[in-house]
Amino acid sequence: MACVYIPVQNSEEEVRVALDQLPRDASDILDILKAEQAPLDLWLIIAREYFKQGKIEQFRQILEEGSSPEIDEYYADVRYERIAILNALGAYYSYLGKIETKQREKEEHFILATQYYNKASRIDMHEPSTWVGKGQLLLAKGEVEQAFAAFKIVLEGDRDNVPALLGQACVEFNRGRYSDSLELYKRALQVYPDCPGAVRLGIGLCRYRLGQLEKARLAFQRVLQLDPENVEALVALAIMDLQANEAHGIQKGMDKMRRAFEIYPYCAMALNYLANHFFFTGQHFLVEQLTETALAVTNHGPTKSHSYYNLARSYHSKGDYEKAGYYYMQSIKEINKPHEFVFPYYGLGQVKLKSGDFRSALSNFEKVLEVYPDNCETMKALGHIFVQLGQIEKALEFMRKATKIDPRDAQAFVDLGELLISSDSGAALDALKTARSLMEKGGQAVPVEVLNNIGVLHFEREEFELALESFNKALGDGIWVTLTGNKPKSYVIEASASILDYKDMQLFHRFEEDGYSVELPWNKVTVVFNLARLHEQLHNTGTANLLYRLILFKYPDYIDAYLRLAAIAKARNNLQLSIELVNEALKVNDKCPNALSMLGELELKNDDWVKAKETFRSASDATDGKDSYAILSLGNWNYFAAIRNEKRNPKLEATHLEKAKELYTRVLVQHTANLYAANGAGVVLAEKGHFDVSKDIFTQVQEAASGSVFVQMPDVWINLAHVFFAQGNFALAVKMYQNCLRKFYYNTDSQILLYLARTHYEAEQWQECKKTLLRAIHLAPSNYTLRFDAGVAMQKFSTSTLQKEKRTADEVRSTVAELENAVRIFSQLSAASNLHLHGFDEKKINTHVEYCKHLLEAAKVHREAAEREEQQNRQKQEAARQLALAEEARRKAEEQRKHLLEKRKQEDELKRLQQAEEHFKRVQEQWKSSNPASKRRDRSEIDDEEGGHSEKRRRKGGKRRKKDKNKSRYERDDEGAEMVDDREELEDEDANMNYRESADQMNDQDDENGEKAQDLLAAAGLEDSDVEDEGAAPSSAGGRRRRAWSESDDDEPAQRGTESSPVRENSAELQDSDGEIREDNSKLNGGAALDDDED
Amino acid sequence: MSKSMKLAGLKSVENAHDESVWAATWVPGTTTRPSLLLTGSLDETVKLWSPDELDLVRTNTGHCLGVVSVAAHPSGVIAASASLDSLVRVFDVDTNATIATLEAPPSEVWQMQFDPKGTTLAVAGGGSASIKLWDTATWRLVATLSIPRPEGPKPSDKSSSKKFVLSVAWSPDGRRLACGSMDGTISVFDVARAKFLHHLEGHHMPVRSLVFSPEPDSRRLYSASDDGHVHIYDAEGKALIGAMSGHASWVLSVDVSPDGEALATGSSDKTVRLWDFKMRAAIQTMSNHTDQVWAVAFRRDGGGRLASVSDDKSISLYHCS
After folding, report:
1. H or E stretch covering B317
2. How far apart are CA B5 and CA B293, in angstroms?
3. How confident is the model at residue A835 (pLDDT cuts 50, 70, 90)?
4. By CB count within 10 A, which of A164, A749, A1013, B237 is most buried?
5. Record's Pfam families (chain B) (predicted)?
6. What percent of chain A shows pLDDT beyond 70?
7. Is the alpha carbon torsion for A34, A39, A43, A49 positive or negative?
């Protein structure tokens, strides 16, 4: 056992002091030392021994005594030992100052240390150990440059002064010059190979900083070999293990960290790392305790920042965003630049995002991006913020960049895809599909929302098979498979038969009885709904119906399912059931604007105008006038109101039109891209005669409406065709009507056929007109108006044929046949009107019947005439043939004569010859004069006839207006004239009855014309029927026609109803699911951000 | 599941008529010739075609306005055709001699069908809301089966046009007649007592075609409607027992295979579909037509043939196995 011997003064004896048996009270030793005037180095040895044994008080007592003025005086010439004592005290107080956390005490310690060193310097200002001590004091105070100067002084005197080398190495380390620092440590080690482990610790740290991780690890391990309890080395090795980022390494790292903590529980770094670990294991209580200790024991900014960060994260993950935000802020306060420690910015950004403070979230994330310009998570976060701020373009930019930087980040593709859904469905689909395949490759389950959105996008692009696949994948296994599968249970079939009984939930109870579990998880409701929509689109109405019912069975408040069932019923024209279903929806929410709008349409379809208007109003009110659909419906209502009135009241019409325009415009102001509002505005403009503008609008709407299965706008095609028609461009109008019919209606819409027929009529293509009408009748047999129109077309065809200058007998014959048909049609209508089968005025039809009969008789006359003419032509041809025969005979005779002459006598008498010739000439002349004469006579007869005819026509035509109004047209005796007269009248009448109103609707045809026509009619004695026509009798042909028109326009909202409501629902669904995903995102982001921290 | 029927296209005649072909039926074979396909068109003609080659046998003229329906007597000797001008022409199939011209003004004429024994011709009477029965021996109108009008203060024009009768079908035993109306109701009559029995409900849009299933399921009635669905009714029990969806537009025509195992439909969606009613689903879709398919008809006397006619002016023949 080590011991010291204190020489007893004036003797050879010594006092033996066993160092491990030093008295508890230092005064005992001090007394001996003083009494024996022991050499100062003994004092120092004993003091150091006390220190080593942790008896700090005794250590201090001896050294303070050993540096007291008496000692100075007594040992005045023992300089080195005195300096050593002072330096030991200086070092002691430096250490106290260094570990003291309270600022005032800390400073007090440093002052004391400084005083001791200064005192030492006064004894010998060149003593290197004093300078070394001073340097270390300065380092402890953080005055790195001054420390450098102090160590330099020592090293200038002695290059190999180990403490100075170590000090200087520390200085260089603090300055960030790790390789210089490393060199100094190495030199120290060379000079003094047995120096304590701390030197190797320095080497390890330098190498670590220089990235030489393996060498660093070796250095730390060496330190631990020398000093198994070296906390710093343990912590350093632990950190390196943790950073290896593999389960085994982390386990090892944490073991070391724990050991370090057991050895010395106040190492802030170890505490932080432990806290970090417990954060991930979810032991938040430990996190807080450890972090608070760490904060108490350190003043080191970065370490404190880390501690605050740990604390903040802990609160963050517990959902205490307020506290989390506060500690993130604290953490940020401890750092000078984001580059030092950027994570708290990320955390703060997230907290701000959560609390909806997008601006400050934005600035925090931007700081993160400054440090890590390629960080995907940050970009995604920024993307989300820009979405929230409405800057979609910027959001897209970040999302695109994120996917480019990490093309394997499925979540980034999901985010990008969702952003693109509204703007570019194709790109959205690509992004989502990429995300899906990334997840599949990674063995990750693809979220239901992603598959749902992929399905919807395929759906929208009419890729129904792919949509179906995606929805089925999203749904996986469940009761819906039994409902949609190929091998249904017999009672499923029974249930699908009772499509009308939506309330029948027996099916599902039977499923339950049969041991099926009838479950529908909440996150799959939307998908089931979309799947049902898809089946609807594929015309599997029965399946769709069952799926909607399944939704309602589990979620009786799911309004959209009611509305779709109502739409199905409506499409099948079961209005009563449809209304019932909408009312079910309204029972769930009596302010649901979609349900109210639909109810309004149904009421309109039921011809319940007043109710419909009220319903539309309440739909609009329910959304504070923000629901475009409700406003549009009101706009449409006003438009129909403007044009439906049989008694056209110009004032009322203008008011309604103006109101309609105002409403459409209101929608357009809110949503500039609303196609339906634009279409409506176009219609109003067309009503006012601005065809060019409206044509432009319609064309644009038509273009915009193509490309999505959810936007079906046949109306705009019809409107365009109407404009073409109004502008007289019949060929284009025909084409447009035909395309519309084919594209949207499978050629089944008789109303469009009627428009088409009317266009043919105006273009005077009678046969096409008739054929078109016959097709329309075939489609809509109970629409007697069409028959009437067909009759009129045939009548018109006949008159126009008879009017022709030249016509063949065949033409006239077909005219007669056509007239017979017309008579038959009108007669049938007339007979049917007795039975109230249709709303025609009997008198009017009879007029037509009579007229056609007369026309027919006249036509028969014409036919006879034509046939006569034909006969005459035949006779003429016969005559000409005979003439030719005679000519031939003459030629032959001549030849014969010549032959005869030759034969008889070539030198016959000239006279005889002349005589013979004269005779022949006479014969010839006789021929000539007889034939042409008869021909001429014939011709003049015809001329006479025609001349008289046309003369009469003119005459009568001129007279007509003056004639007695009350005189029946048919009383006249002159048949020919009558025919012509009547023809004109009826033409006017036709134009008036059948086509004026309709044309008016589009083009406000010159009132003059209309009035003129009316005058003519009045003049012609058709007053009565016209009065009825224009008047209250809604059953008149005109009225019917007009009704037909407005009915067709009625279809507009109906179309909008069926087509647009699914869109709305769908988009709503999409938005919902977006929302869900977005939430998931932020959660995931949170997780990901935390992962980052391990760096 | 028993082996299901399958269709294979055999032959198509483009421009079989100058205009849309609206009606088709098979005329049974006689001792002197095989059965023939009879078609009617908007071009005002009725044509007869050989059963396998679809060679044109004869073109009958004489109708004004489009031909909307054709019917063949079970003997195969006579047939009837009807046009939009509401005239029915009864003619000898082999000579084209006119046997009778029928009209019952103001009643229009839509579908027609001879009863299974061939003693009566039933004609859907359009706006008269009735079926007209003509005796095939005397060609006299023997009965009018009227759909009872809904009770109300006065028959408004609205309700009567709804009862417009479009389609008619005899039950295989000849005891029942069913007719389909514009408003979607189907009415069933007891022929012997000339009595209305009941309505079959479920459709709310025009029912353009009806057919009874052959024995032994002869209570079953199949209906085709503009609502895109085919319904299966128990015509006696007044019950809707099944509904089949799949067509994208109006179902214009329905016919049942001679063995009663399958259904064929023609639709405005341009397709011909073959259905299995055990599955309640279409098992085959033929898309060779380019416009609405107005009629489908199974050949009754063997050979396994289905014919379809369309607005695209063509006729198609399929083999069914």
Report:
1. strand B315-320
2. 20
3. low
4. A164
5. WD40
6. 80
7. negative
Q: Which residues 6+ apart lie within 8 Å of B160 measured at CB?
A: A835, A836, A837, B127, B129, B149
Q: Could B292 and A825 be called an inter-chain contact, meaning their C-beta atoms sit closer than 8 Å?
A: no
How many Cβ atoms are within 10 Å of B129's Cβ, its own excluded?
27
User: A539: nearest CA in chain B?
Assistant: B246
pLDDT given for residue A1041 in this prediction: 37
CA distance B95 to B123: 24
- Which chain B residue's Cα is nearest to A824? B85
ipTM over 0.85: yes
pLDDT, tens digit, 9 for 90 and up, residues B158-169: 445 568 899 999
CA distance B29 to chain A (A): 30
pLDDT band at residue A155 using 50, 70 and 90 as cut-offs: confident
Q: Give, in order, the Cα–Cα distances in Å from B214 to each of B7, B222, B266.
A: 20, 11, 20
- pLDDT confidence of residue A926: 65
Query: Is A1031 contained in some domain?
Result: yes
- B162 neighbourhood in chain A, CB within 8 Å: 782
pLDDT average, residue stretch A423-443: 88
Whole-number Å distance between alpha carbons of A852 and A830? 13
Tokens (6 digits) for A358: 């997008």
Closest partner residue to A747 (CB to CB) among B156, B203, B291 is: B291
Into how many domains does chain A fold? Answer: 1
Residue A849 lies in a domain: yes
Contact between chains at A541 and B228 (C-beta distance less than 8 A): yes
3-state secondary structure of B100: strand
What is the distance of C-alpha A150 from the center of its chain?
Answer: 70
Interchain contact, A778 vs B42, CB within 8 Å:
yes
- At residue B287, the pLDDT reads 94
Whether A567 is in a domain gets the answer no
**What band does B116 get if pLDDT is binned at 50, 70 and 90?**
very high
Q: Mean of the pLDDT values across residues B55-60? A: 94
Give SS3 for A964: coil
- Show the domain range for A866: 801-883+970-1035
Q: Which residues of A touch B247 (CB under 8 A)?
A: 539
Residues of B in contact with A538 (CB under 8 A): 246
| Contact list, A573 vs chain B (CB under 8 Å) | 184, 204-205, 227
Q: Which domains does chain B have, with CATH numbers?
A: 7-320 (2.130.10.10)
B258 upstream amide cis, omega within 30 of 0 = no
A978-991 core/surface letters (b: 16 or more CB in 10 A; e: else): bbbbbbbbbbbbbb
Beta bridge partners of B168: B179
B23 close to B70: Cβ distance less than 8 angstroms: yes
Which residue on chain B is closest to A538 by alpha carbon? Answer: B246
Listing DSSP states for A234-298 in one string gives HHHHHHHHHHT-SHHHHHHHHHHHHHHHHH-TT-HHHHHHHHHHHHHTT-HHHHHHHHHHHHHH-
- The per-residue pLDDT for A914 is 73
Distance CA A363, CA B5 (A): 70
Q: Residues A317-364: pLDDT tens digits?
A: 878 888 888 888 888 887 777 777 788 888 888 888 888 788 888 888
Give the integer Cα–Cα distance in Å for B233 and B187.
12
Q: What percent of chain A has pLDDT over 90?
A: 8
Taking CB atoms and an 8 Å limit, are A540 and B68 in contact across chains? no
pLDDT at B258 over 50: yes
The span from the CA of A134 to the CA of A118, in Å, is 9
- The stretch A759-771 carries a mean pLDDT of 91
Chain A residue nearest residue B183, CA to CA: A573
Given pLDDT bands bounded at 50, 70 and 90, which one contains residue A833?
low
Residue with tokens 């939704």: A551
